[in-house]
Amino acid sequence: MGNSYEGKVALVTGASRGIGEAIAKGFAAEGANVILASRKIEGLQPVVDAITADGGKARAVATHIGQAESIDALVEDIKSNEGRLDVLVNNAATNPVFGPSMFTDEAAFDKIMGVNVKGPFLLSKGLLPLFQEQESGSIVNIASIAGVIPMPGLGIYSVSKSALIGLTKVLASEWAPFGVRVNAVLPGLIKTRFSQALWDSEEILKQTLELQKIKRLGEPEDVVGAVLFLASEEAKFITGQALPVDGGTLP
User: Fold this and answer.
1) What's the CATH number where 13 sits?
2) 212 Cβ partners below 8 Å, 6+ apart?
3) Alpha-carbon distance 82 to 85, whole Å?
4) Labelling 230: which of 51, 86, 141, 184 has CA 20 to 30 A away?
5) Among 95, 193, 185, 91, which residue's Cα sits nearest to residue 144?
6) What percent of the chain has pLDDT over 70?
7) In terms of residue numbers, what domain contains 240?
8) What CA–CA distance (Å, rounded) separates 143 from 127?
9) The pTM is what?
10) Confidence class of residue 48 from pLDDT cuts 50, 70 and 90?
């Protein structure tokens, strides 16, 4: 276990599995006190147990990123318990529709945009006073290469990730005077349950690997290093950037 984040507090949303779980474990392994957020506390507890079993520090908070009142409760919880926050990783996301955008109804559109864009905005905004008080803070938004190039079946999800990249750049510009850096990581096709409809499709998997220079599926752990770097002091002169972690898909 390293100590580059010793004494730091990191919040990771969508941390019950997949990329979020790997990121939470990565911060804990580097000494951070990690707050894990997801809709169901029972999904988070095994991750907390795994972190503490390895000597790390972690706790779980049930939070629905698609509901403003739940976000407000999380912000107040952190203010009351830790009283500070050094890193926010906006990872929670949803995509209830696999297929072209013409098959996305209004309710699904609102859900996708609410969780994937509005939620990260409200959570970041709610935590801004802590960052301002500290005159420091780092936000890493987990977007997607689908926000840059359309991908089969992702429709409005791709739109939401484009918006999240845009939000990253706006907040980076507006919040730099407060000492807050805001960056994004753009994963390619990562082997998680969330993306299973993509890598289960022989056609989509073949198309994806043809575009990649590294001819394999990404793993959640492949994303961790980029997040740890962007959130760290080593990246203190980097803000407003969108870093692909995609096996060389984007040019």
Assistant:
1) 3.40.50.720
2) 188, 246, 247, 248, 249
3) 7
4) 51
5) 185
6) 96
7) 9-244
8) 20
9) 0.95
10) very high
